[in-house]
Amino acid sequence: MITWDTSSQCTGAGTQNGKVALYVPRDKWAQKLKEYQAFKIVAGNDGKERRKPLHRGKLMHKDTIAIISQFNAEIQCLYNYYFMAENASVLNNFASIMKGNFLKTLAATGNTSCNKIRKKYEQDGVISIPMRPKAVQSVASSAMMVLQRNRPCLP
To answer: Given CB 3.0 to 4.6 Å as the disulfide criterion, which of 35, 59, 80, 127 pairs with 152?
Structure first.
């Protein structure tokens, strides 16, 4: 179950201005990343914990379009739920880890590196993968870095 954090904002010496603010709880999006097994925690050079994206073995048997559709659906689901939150921008952290997870999954599928995948498909921060059906050529774009505040992402 996904929940909201709420708070009332104070102005001055403890007086309430009556505005209720909704916030994305950090533990909720972090829990989603754990559910997806999208990262592992490693110690950085400065001794702090860092999240390192991992590839997803469960998706490696799928084609590229199915993989990008799965990642977009996961990101959009969480963002559509929390898009009205005052701190919806923290979901960019979620999207950033998911982007790394996506690139690692594609790289592992094609037996190549993340940098080669990024050079091949990324344009202006958006990953675009060409689809080549028999008669029409179209493009499937990733919404991973296109999270905007106060506007839900639509599939």
So the answer is: 80
